[in-house]
Amino acid sequence: MNILNRFVRYYKPYRLLFYTDMLCAVIVSVVDLSFPQILNHLNKNVFTQGREVILHSIGFFGAALLTLYIIRYFCQYFITCWGHIMGARMEADMRRDLFTQFQRLSFSYYDQNNTGELMSRLVNDLFDISELAHHGPENIFISFLKIIGSFVLLMLLNVPMTLILLAVTAIMVIFSIQRNLKMKAVFLDNRVKIAKVNTSLQDSLAGIRVVKSFANEEAEKMKFRKSNQDFLASKASSYKMMGGYFAWNSFFSGLLYIVVIISGGLSIAGGSLTLTELVIYLLYINIFVQPLEVLINFTEQFQKGFAGFKRFEEIMETKPDIIEKPNALPLENVKGEIEFSNVSFRYNLDDDVLQNVSVRIPTGRKVALVGPSGGGKTTLCSLLPRFYDVTEGTITIDGNDIRDVTLDSLRNAIGIVQQDVYMFSGTIKENIAYGKANASDQEIIEAARSANIHEFIMSLGLGYDTFVGERGVRLSGGQKQRLSIARVFLKNPPILILDEATSALDNESERYIQESLSKLSHNRTTIIIAHRLSTIKNADEIIVITDEGVQERGTHRQLVNLDGIYARYYNMQFEGIDTQERQP
Ligand code: ADP
Ligand code: MG
C-alpha cells in the first residue's frame, strides 16, 4: 500500500462529509466564476436596452445574485466548519491509532526512542496532518476549478491579452516556487530550534528537583536563554524571507494589472475591446491569480503534512519485537514452576549479557540472584514476563514455553516489585487498583493492610482518595514502595520478582517493607534480587551472576563454605556485626 492510499484510508469513515465538502467547494467556485459572467450578460443584453427593460430586469438579477450568494454562504460555512471537524476527527483517529501502537510496542522500542520526541509527534505532526487532510483536497480542488474556469473565460474575452497574462503569471509562479524552496529550509530550521527549546524546557521541568538541589538555576537559565535566542534568530530570518516574499508577490500582482491595463488600453484604442469588457477582464484576473497564490502557499503546508504523515506511518509500521503466536493459549491455573534452560541473551548486536544460563525453580520456592551491578540480574528477570525474548534457549512456566502462551495471561501471572516505583497521577486508591481494575474497596484496603500502608493512608486528609501528585512526588520512597507492594498483593500473582525492592530505602523503611515482602512472597515462586544479603539468606538457591556469567550457586551455607565471591560479599557486608548473625 503506498503512502497516499494509507492516507486516504483515514477519509473512509467520513466519506459523506468529504463529498459534501467537495460539492460545496464546487458551488463556491461556480458562484465566484459566475458573477463577472452575469455582469457581462447584463452589459451586453440588458444595460444596452432602454430604461424600461433595465428597471424590469434589474430586480430579477438582483434577486438571482442574492440567492446565489446565500447558497454560497451556506457552502462556505460547511467547508469551514465541517471541513475542519472532518480534519479534527481524522486527527483524533490517527492519535487513537498511534496511542494503541505505543501500547503495543515493546521495551526495546522505548530503549531506542526518546519519549519527549514521541510526545511531540503525537501533538505537532498530527496537527499538520489534520490541516493537510482538511485543506489539502479542498484547496487543490477549488483552486484548480477556479484557475481553469477563469482561464477559459479570460480566453473567451480576449486571447492576445490572456497569452501575455499567462507569460507574466508563469514567471511569477516560477519565482514563487524558488522562494518557497528557500523558505522551506528556514522553516525546517525553525522547527529544529523550537524542538531544542522544548527539550530544554521539558528536561529542566522534569528534573527541577535536581536543578534546585544542585543550585543550578542560573546555569539552567543560561542554557534556556541560549536555545530561546537561537529560536528567535531563526524566526527573525524566516520573517525577513516572508516579508520579501509577500511584498514581491503583491508587486507581481500589481504588475499583472499594469500589463493588462496597458494592453487593454491599446486594445480599446484599436476598437477590439470595450471598457466594460476590460473591467470584467480585471475581475477574472483576480479569480485567476488568487487561487494560484493559495496553491503556492499551500505547498508548504502540503510538505509539512506529508512529512508528518510519513513519520506517523513509520511508527505505525514498526512491528513490536514481542508478539503473541496466533495460536497462543492462555496460561491457566498457574502453579509457578519456572525453568530457564540454556538461556542466552543480548540486547542489540553487542556481547551477550547472559550466556547459557539454566535455572529451575520449583513451585513456591525462592531463588536469589546476587552479583555486581551490570551483571545481568535485572535482564534475567525481564525475560520471564517477555519484556525481551531470549536470544537462545527456552523459558517455561509449568512446562509451557512462555512464547506459546498469551502475553496477558503470562504477565498476569507475574508480579514485579522494583526499586523504581512509578505512580500514575491520580488517587492512592486508583494507584493500588492498577493491580486489578475491578477490585472492590474491601480488596484494596486488604491489600494496603498487607503492605503495611493502610494506617498511613488513613492518616491522610482524604484517605484513599488522596491525590499522589505527579509521579507520586508527595510520597516518600518507602511509602511509594509500599503502595507498589499493595498493587501486587491485589494482583495476587503466583510468581513474584523482587528486583532490589528495598535498595533505595533507609534501614528503618527497609525493615518495615521487608516484613510485607516476606508476607507477599509466601506461597509464591519468587526470584529475588537483593543488595543486602541478610534478606536472601533463606532462599532455596542463591545464584551469583557476574558479567562473566553464573559463577556460583547453592544455598547460603554452601556458598559461605565455598569461600568464593559470595562469601567475600557476605563478609564485607557483615564486618563488625556480631558473629551470631554472621553464622546462621
Ligand atoms: P544488573 O541488574 O545485574 O545490575 P542489568 O541486567 O541491568 O544488570 O544489566 C546487564 C547489562 O545489560 C549491563 O551491561 C547493561 O548496561 C546492559 N543493559 C541493561 N539494560 C539494557 C537495555 N535496555 N539496552 C541495552 N543494554 C542494556
Ligand atoms: Mg538491576
From TrEMBL:
What Pfam families does the record point to?
A: ABC_membrane (PF00664), ABC_tran (PF00005)
Annotated ranges, domain ABC transporter: 338-572
Record-linked Gene3D superfamilies: ABC transporter type 1, transmembrane domain, P-loop containing nucleotide triphosphate hydrolases
Q: Where in the cell is it found?
A: Cell membrane
**InterPro entries, per database record:** AAA+_ATPase, ABC1_TM_dom, ABC1_TM_sf, ABC_transporter-like_ATP-bd, ABC_transporter-like_CS, P-loop_NTPase, Type_1_exporter
- Per UniProt, residues of the ABC transmembrane type-1 domain are 22-304
Keyword field:
ATP-binding, Membrane, Nucleotide-binding, Transmembrane, Transmembrane helix
Q: How does it sit in the membrane?
A: Multi-pass membrane protein
Q: Could you list the residue ranges that cross the membrane? A: 16-33, 53-71, 163-181, 245-266, 278-296
Q: Identify this protein by name.
A: Thiamine ABC transporter permease
**Organism of this sequence:** Dehalobacter restrictus (strain DSM 9455 / PER-K23)
